[in-house]
Known about the structure:
Shape: globular
Strand order of the largest sheet: 2-3-1-9-8-10
Strand content: 5-15%
Oligomer: single chain
Amino acid sequence: MCGYVGVIQKKIHQSYDELSNRLRASAERISHRGPDDAHEWVSKDGHIGFGFRRLSIRDLSEAGRQPMHSHCARFTMVFNGEIYNHLDIRKKLEGISSQRWLGHSDSETLLAAISCWGLEKTLTLLDGMFAIALWDRSEQKLFLVRDRFGEKPLYYTQQNDMLYFASELKGLPDLGASFGDIDQEALQTYFRLRYVPAPRTIYENIKKVLPGEIVIYSLAGNHNLSYRKYWDTALEAQKSVNKGYTGSREEALNDIDSLLNQLVDRRLASDTPIGTFLSGGIDSSLVTALAQNQSYDAIKTYTIRFEDERYNEADEALKVANHLGTDHTEMSVSEGDALKLIGNIREVYDEPFADPSQIPTMLLCQLARQHVTVAISGDGGDEFFGGYSRYLQIENDWNDRKHHMQNENIARLLAGLPWHVIDKGAGIFRKKPSRFGPKVKKSLIKSCANSLGAFSEHYSGFWRDGLPLKNVSLANNWNFGRTWPMDEEQMDSFGVLKSLMVSDSMVYLPDDLMVKVDRASMAASLEVRTPFLNQDLAKLCWSLPTRWHVNQRDGLKQLLRETLYKYVPQKLVDRPKKGFDVPIRDWLRGELKSWGAELVNSTNAEVCELLDMDLIQQSWREHQKGANREGDLWPALMFLAWKVT
């Protein structure tokens, strides 16, 4: 795992030495991503340069050093990630080319494949996580590429006939890039979702490469950026749904088991120590069981113990570890630990990010890094196998509302009303007030697709009385369609549950979960691998009937549960899902109270221009009196901590 920065310039604004120094200083900003080696490269003509920091995982020798040049001398590459099936690709290359291998790194395999087959064909073959910057000397083009599910980050900006790019935002300023002002729409989206989805960032000038995207900059011509998708999640999901699975449910279970064994086996390859995260839940227990099943020695496992038993799964994790015979380590987490960590969150995440599980994730990564360089996680299991309780809640709510709103004329009438008015009105059809916000299947009421809703707070956001923004139009008018990737036809084809599963894999997974894991792990110089994030597994899951994954009678994630029962007794893992939550609501009245109070009473001029501090302070007072306003306050506090400190 690594980090890199780079510049391509049409005119030589910076000399060779100046550019080299800038690359070195910029790469140093992200040295936590690669503490083992540092190297810079600038082309002889001075038009392009890369800076690289290496975390040595495979081929610890200089043969694995980057930036790396292809044997044909056409390509130069920096690459952050892992190609798990690179040995299979090597075998294919050895049968058709005269490639001479200098080492056994996946970077060398990747470059050789690109030289032989071209970039796009090579990308279709990869099982891996990656962010690639590839310079094609022959075509005078730079290619920026990101993996299918957004595991690895890549930021870029085009300014003054120059393109700057980096693995993290903090790497850009030393190159000469300007962040620009805060993006107001990104800020609005952040307060709704707790994160900023790609391609936006919190800054107007900076963009993220999308998952499955290639961004191309040509040194010749008009220098406009062009974009191509080598992987389209919605399209691939649609193909899988249309094709359907032709086997029986039992055959599907066998296929899942066989494929997951293969994917875990690939992710065990490392020249450095490796372990797994083990919460005791379905996903992490299965990944750990498969890893232990394929290992001669006891796999090292790591878990977090919370003092608050409402959030604690450490006892369950210990039972699973004992059954599997792993080398288990746990760490107790208290409010004091959170307080010690809180000041570092801004540095770790670069832009506002408010998933509260970021705290235990950072602590878990720090714990694992004391013993291993690589950890395997169960991220992605919920999205592909239907693991979120909100899926059934949303489907129930949708069916309830659908029953009462069949008349499209009523829908057209409602289309002109604010969503919160409709949401409140729809509550009369329920035994309890609606918990869900603005969005409904477009085919039912096209005219108000962004006003009605059957989607949980996860999708519609928090701050039920409007966002805490000074820009009133942004605060009160939320166009959910900006962050909902499904179109009408796809929703009709997929159905409610599968629409949610696919959409989560397109937005929530890359922009929340993978951001959380990547930044927390890389801050600790730890590589995290995710067996569930594989295109073949995703397509298999999408092809299966939704009722096999999730149904009202049997509940969530049925196929994955039954796969796990082959390795772990059902009684050890059958319990309600807790998630990796933390008692933020209580901590904000305890150890974090002074920290939070100082932030909400900030007089920072720029913050006061952006945010309605009176509304935030009111929410803070209500929370201190016993109301639960965590959902409102944590995004506000994370933004204030990012902007003020």
